[in-house]
Amino acid sequence: MNILLTGSSGQLGQELLPRLQALGTVTCVDQVARDDDKVTQRHDLSDLNRVEIFLNRTQPELIVNAAAYTAVDRAETESEAALRINAELPGCLARWTARNDALLLHYSTDYVFSGEAREPYREDARTGPLNLYGESKLAGERAITASGCRHLVLRTSWVYSGHGNNFVLTMLRLARERPSLSIVSDQTGCPTWARNLARVSSSLLEQVGRQPAAFRHWGIWHYCDNGVVSWFDFAVAIFETALEAGLLNRLPDMTAVPTEAFPQAATRPLYSVLDTSAIRETFGIEPASLQASLRACIGEMNHHDEQ
User: Fold this and answer.
1) Burial class for 286, CB neighbours closer than 10 Å (0-12, 13-18, 19+)
2) pTM here?
3) CB 144 within 8 A of CB 220
4) pLDDT in tens, 186-213
5) Any idea which residues carry the catalytic annotation?
């Protein structure tokens, strides 16, 4: 299979690449590329005319769109950039996919919901984003659906890994720099290891198989790891796991604080737990354990530090 992976330099893209390479020949593109990245081609993904030219030249049978504008607060003042990458780019990819009988795998977010619910959000739950980032991601979902292309959209939450910019790495850095930390305790969600999301992606694609015309489960699906926590709870787990692994030599003093203690440009949902029962029942995909995944991620980081 001829595969195009966008956002290949991001934390999810780096986890997706080896799994996609097992399925076919992968072309990698991103806005930027790491210095050690020898496979990613740099392309301005906000220039949709050039994106279309590139698609016509490469003719992918499968597009995996891991590119995203993820600076939640900055999106409030950079709305045009966020909408370009999170809404217009997916729409462009989807329309090309529909015209060329290809497939599209795209990623969305728990932030399409308002956080007012008190039970996990199912795929058909009413959306209501509280910030521009969530609005842009929801617009991307709608553009894909409107295109009529064969697509899978995976909504996920609180993604972390041992590389890139994420809560786990930020907490470890701050724990080394400061003796005490104040952490928000009234926002609740499900942290998800990027590697698990990549594993689920490859499982879905394997089930689509070589005869996608026979596949009947296109649409939006929810996947997050199994573990409902607050940011404060997650930080405690990070520090305890890192201390055990030798990445920290002490636990910082921690204070649980409400969201209003940290004024931010973008409003966050207080409850954004995703219901994963549909993907489990339909595809046999079991959510991974938060505790086991965090331990594996931090253990891998420790191994790299020792080398």
Assistant:
1) exposed
2) 0.94
3) no
4) 999 999 999 999 999 999 999 998 677 8
5) 133
